Structure formats: C-alpha cells, structure tokens
Amino acid sequence: MSQPDNIYSQPLEQVRDFVFDKAVVDVFSDMILRSVPGYQTIISTIGHLAQVHCQDNSNVYDLGCSLGTATLAMRRTIKANNVEIIAVDKSADMVEKCRLHLQGYKSPFPTQVLCDDILNIDINNASIVILNFTLQFLQPADRQQLINRIYQGLKPGGLLVLSEKLKFVDQPCHDLIDELHLDFKRAHGYSELEISQKRAAIENVMRIDDLSAHYQRFKNAGFNHYQQWYQCFNFASMVAIK
Ligand SMILES: Nc1ncnc2c1ncn2[C@@H]1O[C@H](C[S@+](CC[C@H]([NH3+])C(=O)[O-])CC(=O)[O-])[C@@H](O)[C@H]1O
Ligand SMILES: O=C(O)C(=O)Cc1ccccc1
C-alpha cells in the first residue's frame, strides 16, 4: 500500500518543479485519492466503458499509466477476445512499481508496460485509449499531434477517454470552483503549506485547458462525436468516439 503523502508538509527553501520521481511514486496512491475528486468514479467507469466497448482482436492503450490503476480496472472487466493492453509511462520509477503492481493480479490479457514518452508510441488497431490525467502534463504544443495520432490509431467505434483538470474562462466561476477543490484537499488533511507548495510545484509543469480547447482538439483530429461525461469541481472526464 501507499505511504501517506507528506512531500510538501515541511517548508521548503525552494519549491522545485513537480516530477514523478521515487518519492512521489511511493506516496502516489494516497496523493491522487486526496487530490483528485472523483478519481475512483472515473477509474471504475473506465473499467465499465472497456467492458462494453472493447472489441475482439484489438489493442487497449493506457497512456501515462502511473501505477496502472486504469489498466487493472480494465483487465478486470474486459470480456472481448484476443486483446492486448499497452500501458505507457515515461517515469522509470512509476513503471517499475506499475509492473510489480500488475504482477500481483492474474489476467488473461497480455499486458506490456513500456517506459517511454507517449509521444513516441505507435498507436494502432485500438478499441480503447485512456488518457487519465496525462495530457495536462504534455507541452501544450504537443497535445494536438497526440490526439491526432490517437484518432488515426483507433478502429471505427473505438473510444478515447480523456480526463483532465479544467480551467474556466469566467474568472469568478474559475476561482469559486478552484476553492471547492482546495476545500476538498483541506478536508483530506492537506495543510495550507502543503497546498501552496504543491501548487507552486505543479504551476509550470501542468498547464490546464478549458473544455472548449479539448473539444476543439477532438474536432481538429477528426472526431465527430465527443462529450464530457463527468465533472467534480475542476476535474472532468470526456469520451470521444471514432
Ligand atoms: N509525455 C509523457 N509520456 C509518458 N508518460 C507521461 C508523460 N507526461 C506525463 N506522464 C506520466 O503521466 C502520469 C500522470 S498521473 C496519471 C494517473 C494515471 N493515468 C491513473 O489513472 O492513475 C496524473 C497526475 O498525477 O495528476 C505520470 O505517471 C507521468 O509520469
Ligand atoms: O494536487 C493538485 O492540486 C492537482 O491538481 C492534481 C495532481 C494530482 C497528482 C499529481 C499532480 C497533480
């Protein structure tokens, strides 16, 4: 099990840019549950979507898989035959723990865990592609080409599930919803110091978009069918269908 996240609990002389290193990997399960409202609902719905929409003789991609939580949810639910799962993360520490984590659960589906940048991955014959809170960590200039390659690699009827933290164009509404998220973190035991140091750490590495930017990218890539299916505060999940 995860250790408690106390990475930002002591005052730091200098808050460095957030990285998914060994210290973060060791506390990651606790961090994500206490930081992302709706995370468990999104994970179980990814499992359900994969159960319903995974196609025979296809590939399933979990891009930015971290500890493989979405992969595990899908391995538990998929009923299709001849399915291969490709989980990818560029953090070597994450991939190491992800592989150990997946070894703990038997599955009939061959699963590769690749340590690579998702921008380098060949996406083909896919019926399900998951980007669960990963796109927000890519350079904004690289985001459209990834969505384009996912569109091209999907089979007809295939799904892209994209979960992201959102910003809102109306500033008072943005601030109100942001405060709801901070209250969620407070309610889960994070102090004001932890909240402000984490914020400083992710400021430069996690550039968030508004919903219309995501919809525009889907459209530019060629998707004709896309819809947000979930939101809790500023955390949302969308689905796009080829
Ligand atoms: N270019 C990249 N290439 C590969 N991996 C990347 C890249 N950029 C970031 N990552 C990886 O994307 C993951 C983002 S966490 C995803 C949660 C998971 N999906 C979950 O369902 O639990 C979200 C969060 O921590 O808010 C990290 O493991 C990074 O190493
Ligand atoms: O912690 C936050 O404020 C977030 O926005 C989410 C998050 C969760 C885990 C790693 C980085 C960002």
How do the strands and helices of this protein lay out in sequence?
Elements lengths: L21 H14 L3 H15 L5 E5 L5 H9 L6 E6 L2 H12 L7 E5 L10 E7 L7 H14 E12 L5 H17 L4 H12 L7 H11 L3 E8 L2 E7 L1
Parallel strand pairs: 1-2, 1-4, 2-3, 4-5
Antiparallel strand pairs: 5-7, 6-7
The structure holds the ligand Nc1ncnc2c1ncn2[C@@H]1O[C@H](C[S@+](CC[C@H]([NH3+])C(=O)[O-])CC(=O)[O-])[C@@H](O)[C@H]1O and 3-phenylpyruvic acid.
List keywords for this structure.
242 residues; alpha/beta; Rossmann fold; 7-stranded mixed beta sheet; 7 strands; binds 3-phenylpyruvic acid
Task: Describe this entry's structure for a reader.
This protein has helices spanning 22-35, 39-53, 69-77, 92-103, 140-153, 171-187, 192-203, 211-221, and strands at 59-63, 84-89, 111-115, 126-132, 154-165, 225-232, 235-241. The chain is α/β, with parallel strands linked by helices and 242 residues long. It has a domain at 39-167 and 206-241: Vaccinia Virus protein VP39 (Rossmann fold, 3-Layer(aba) Sandwich), CATH 3.40.50.150. α2 runs parallel beside α3 (69-77) and α5 (140-153) packs across α8 (211-221). It is globular. The model has no long low-confidence stretch (mean pLDDT 98). It binds the ligand Nc1ncnc2c1ncn2[C@@H]1O[C@H](C[S@+](CC[C@H]([NH3+])C(=O)[O-])CC(=O)[O-])[C@@H](O)[C@H]1O and 3-phenylpyruvic acid.
